[in-house]
Design brief:
- With 175 residues, the protein is of the alpha+beta class.
- It has a single domain, classed as Roll (Thiol Ester Dehydrase, Chain A), CATH 3.10.129.10.
- Helix content is 39%, strand content 29%.
- The protein contains six helices and six strands; from the N terminus they run ααααββαββαββ.
- It has a six-stranded antiparallel sheet with strand order 1-2-4-5-6-3.
- A hairpin with a 7-residue loop joins strand 5 and strand 6.
- The model has no long low-confidence stretch (mean pLDDT 90).
Length: 175
Amino acid sequence: MRDTVFKLYLRSILMTNKFRKVVNKVNKAPRTIRSFLLTKIFCTTVKFAGTASIKLVSVSHTQAVLTLENKKKVRNHIGGIHAIAAALLAESATGIVFGMNVLDTCVPLLKSMTIHYQRRMKGSLTAVAKISEVDVHMIENSNKGSIMVNVEITDESEQQPIVCEMEWAWVAKRT
């Protein structure tokens, strides 16, 4: 019994993720300011997301919901959201939900990104990235690996104008 408790204690010390701790604290704040705080924290760290005005709606260790409004600074020549801005939204959503689970002793890396543009984007975009509990367990219990992180991008017509595949990897930090 004592060994089991000690092992769980050691595991809790070694298995830390600063980003997850910050998000968990923000998620305890009043609902009306959570999105603002999550967005501010993320966009301060990831400057390009701030430049594009990506908004974090909600974040947990298994799901991230982000939005991108169709504003002038992210529009293409035909008035829709630019292809690269949509890719940034997909990368940000998958990176956040993946990053919530990578230990501080490891480095998260985008290994590959495949995007198929199905049709013209209409209005603002919403990204919902999800990761399974099985994937979370695998990430938390190994120093190296890769997984596909699912993301669904919808526009104001509630259709998917793009289909994305994001492969994220993690490796131990060099000491």
